[in-house]
What does this fold into?
Amino acid sequence: MGCHASSAGHSGGEGAWLTRSGCWDWGTSGAEWPAASSTADGRSPGTTCPRRRASTPAAWACGSPARHASSPRGDDGVLDAMPAGAVLIETSTIDPHTMEQVGREAQGRGVRALDVTLSGEPPQAAQGQLVFMVGGDEALLDSSRPLLETLSRTIHHTGGGIGTAKTVKLVNNLMSLSNIAAAAEAFVLGVKCGMEPQRLFDILSTSGGRSAHFIHDWPGVLQGDYRPGFKTSLAAKDIGLILDLAAQERYAAVVAPVIARLYGEAVAVGSGEEHFTSLVKLFESRAGISVQPARDVASARP
It folds into this structure.
């Protein structure tokens, strides 16, 4: 497994790493990383954390006593390059059993590991408003809080076991992806029946069926804005991990396979690089309508 980076909100691709001495990255531009909370070196809220560039994961691993990485295994040299006593903050969305193996490998090298997962997207990261789920030693978590709080408003300890944060992240993502799939089908049905889209959103966003993603992300759907925060391709990847986890635990998931099929279809028709709410396009296509208010709602009924 190669070593790769994660963006602030989700794993995948190249990105930045927050350390006690600044932000490190490899393979990316030297942009500034906004931080809404006080940083570990005492900068005030709203200041930025300058990025520092490293040409390889191994070079990055030598740069600071605390490292934030995704998938730090393989031949790229991250764990091998980390000195004994260093702290690895692992934030990728992977299956819990893989994370357990990473933890064991880190321990064998004298590296202390925290299993960290994130809830939120890049805008929340920029505002220091992510939610962190953290598995591992509680004392290590406490000593790492100043670093984590540069990006997070809420930090939950999922327990002392490495892998517990990955479990929570995957079940959370099953809920999130299911919520959006149900919202897409329901919303298209409502518009198909003649409801004006903005009025329907205003009502549903205060009613019992709402979810955090519906409230935050559906205004973009109404504007036809599917610029990626969390991509549909990543949604499909995560639901695959959820199915794998269920199979490993011999748990006969019922809803997850349906959700996996839907996001797989969305990727197949070209929405993989769009925001995962673009799933609504599947339902629009089947209904022969658009949910954007600018369209002629009178044509919703055949």
